[in-house]
Design a protein that fits this description.
- It is a single chain.
- This protein is α+β, with helices and mostly antiparallel strands.
- It has one domain: Alpha-Beta Plaits.
- About 35% of the residues lie in helices and about 35% in strands.
- The chain is built from three helices and four strands, in the order βαββααβ.
- The chain has a four-stranded antiparallel β-sheet with strand order 2-3-1-4.
- Helix 1 packs antiparallel against helix 3.
- The protein is globular, with a radius of gyration of 13 Å.
Length: about 100
């Protein structure tokens, strides 16, 4: 069963360009993963520093492989997360 991740990120507007660049670089890597079905990055229109990610994977194992990638550690764990002021992540099965 397909697996989805919906993430809401908030950062200080001063960090928005850095977070945006890392998320877009992450998208490039993720779209090449065999288990990935889609990776969309959205900037919230009315909230500076607000981002929404919608990711789809063939299954949970596809997401787990994604999260284990070296570029996930570099771009998400070490670059994006330290700059976040808020983070909410939902994991869901696609019906």
């Amino acid at each position: 069963m397909a697996f989805a991740v919906i993430a809401h990120y908030s950062c200080d507007p001063a960090d928005e360009d850095t977070v945006r660049a890392a998320l877009l670089k992450m998208r490039g890597h993720t779209l090449t993963e065999p288990g990935n079905l889609g990776y969309e990055v959205h900037a919230e229109v009315d909230r500076p520093g607000g981002f929404v990610l919608y990711e789809r994977y063939a299954d949970r194992a596809g997401f787990d492989a994604h999260a284990a990638a070296d570029y996930f550690d570099e771009l998400i764990v070490r670059t994006v997360r330290p700059l976040l002021t808020g983070r909410a992540v939902t994991f869901a099965e696609v019906l």
